[in-house]
Amino acid sequence: MKLIGLIGSGSSTAYAPVIIWDRVEHYAKEEQLVVVDDSRRSMRFLGVLRLIRRYEPFLDSRKRTSYVDNPDLVETGTLPHSSGYVSIIGVISENGVVEPQLPPNPGSKVYVVESPTDLSLELGGGLVIGVHKYSGIEIPLDPRGIPYHIGVVGATGTGKSRLVKAFIDEVLAKTNYNIIVFDHTGMDYSVFYKDNVVEGSRTVLDISLITDMILYRTGLNRNTYEPYIMVSLLSYIYNYIREKHPELLQELIGSSSGGRQKTLVPKTPSFQEFLNKIDYSRLQEILAEKNIVWDITSFKEQLIRTLQNMRARDSSKIRLGIALDVYLGKQFFESLNKRDMLPRDIVGYAGNNRLVVVDLSTEDLEARRYIVSSVINELWRIIEEKREPINTLVVIDEAHNYACRSCGVSHRAITRIAREGRKWGLGVLLATQRIIDIDPEIRGNINTWLFSKLQTPGDFNELKGYMDLSGISENTLAILGKREFFVAGLMNPLRIPILIKVRTVE
Ligand SMILES: Nc1ncnc2c1ncn2[C@@H]1O[C@H](COP(=O)(O)OP(=O)(O)OP(=O)(O)O)[C@@H](O)[C@H]1O
Ligand SMILES: [Mg+2]
């Protein structure tokens, strides 16, 4: 450890002024860990150096001195010195770092912690995603904070996704949590966990979502076209099943053919009957099992028949026909094929393998949100069934696409975890570039924040609203490098935000 100065007059249990020894002034950097040795009282305080300023007694901008009339006077000499503050973490004791009861004495010596061997701190065996930037001391994050939710924010390229990867590895290694990762780009996590990837494009979509996707892509008026599209989709499915698996139609409308009837050939339900009685969750299962094939030509034929039956106007028929060919095309219908997984399969995969990465990169935004919400809803279904903690962490990167106020189904699902997840061991980790794009209700329930250089000044004020930033200035954040993040909140083992450098993740 290197001596850098003395505690000045006016310390409290939270802050202590430091007068920096001029000869070693260049060693004193903001965010360094320091030990304050109050030898007279045999106490050692741990703290972080902050708000370092350079002063000169005669060059006070609010006082008139001879320098005002004669700037050349500086050539005869000045008396500059640096001073700053120690933001006090606590008193170093055998049981770790405990809350200080007294402020450090003026005159106590201040040392910079230069390496992990300088100091052994009992910080518990938590999740280590990196070390303190200057001292190299490991900062283990308390895993009990997982179900109280985690936010990772920083401008683009600061290393959020890599940090999250380090976090995932630690959770897998040191806790009993299962993890479901939604990989928005398909390049952040799928490449690292090749053996645990499930293609989001294998998830069965439901009729209302496919309708929404068609309406969104074509820009057709919902009031007019929603019924036509929905009924056409259902007729398509009905006809497909009637042709390929007629035995399933009875099952889909929930009529049991017990007793004597078994020997009879069951009557095929009409489309109207199918529409009235269909069991939609069974339908999803059948779609996953039987792999229904969608094709634009057959769908168009179905659409025309449906429009005729529903007595649609000619203009509606034309509009829909154009929309189908021009805005959707063959590709859209092909993207509905080869879907053989249900949300419960994804949750089951996580249960069996501890980790599942759902690659959402090839899906429409609406479909991505649907998949996120349906997987979360499945987790809630299990919780409601078993009434016991599920110990699962849901990781959502590029979270502004899912947790924004106008994000629809995924917003609702994430809000529920944020509000109620803690009771059931269900946590969410959201990573995003801009904190203000996350719905306030969700971000208000996030109790651990990891933040780096921020994209907008508003974000800094937002963070300040949630936690005591203990003298971290916006300027400090602005000059942070890649992989440098502050840890604050519940999982931080220290009581003030601390700067870590994330370990190498490659
Ligand atoms: N911990 C790390 N170890 C090794 N390389 C890193 C680390 N963190 C960041 N990098 C480098 O910086 C690049 C950007 O990191 P990352 O993708 O994690 O940033 P990001 O904050 O998620 O950016 P975006 O907001 O654009 O998603 C990586 O491709 C990698 O080259
Ligand atoms: Mg990223």
UniProtKB/TrEMBL annotation:
Domain of life of the source: Archaea
The reaction(s) this protein catalyses: ATP + H2O = ADP + phosphate + H(+); Couples ATP hydrolysis with the unwinding of duplex DNA by translocating in the 3'-5' direction
Species assigned in the record: Staphylothermus marinus (strain ATCC 43588 / DSM 3639 / JCM 9404 / F1)
InterPro entries: HerA-like, HerA_central, P-loop_NTPase
Gene3D superfamilies: P-loop containing nucleotide triphosphate hydrolases (3.40.50.300)
UniProt protein name: Helicase HerA central domain-containing protein
Family matches, as PANTHER family: HELICASE HERA CENTRAL DOMAIN-CONTAINING PROTEIN (PTHR42957:SF2), HELICASE MJ1565-RELATED (PTHR42957)
Domain (Helicase HerA central): residue spans on this chain: 129-377
Pfam families given in the database record: DUF87 (PF01935)
Family: Belongs to the HerA family.
Alphabetized GO MF terms: 3'-5' DNA helicase activity; 5'-3' DNA helicase activity
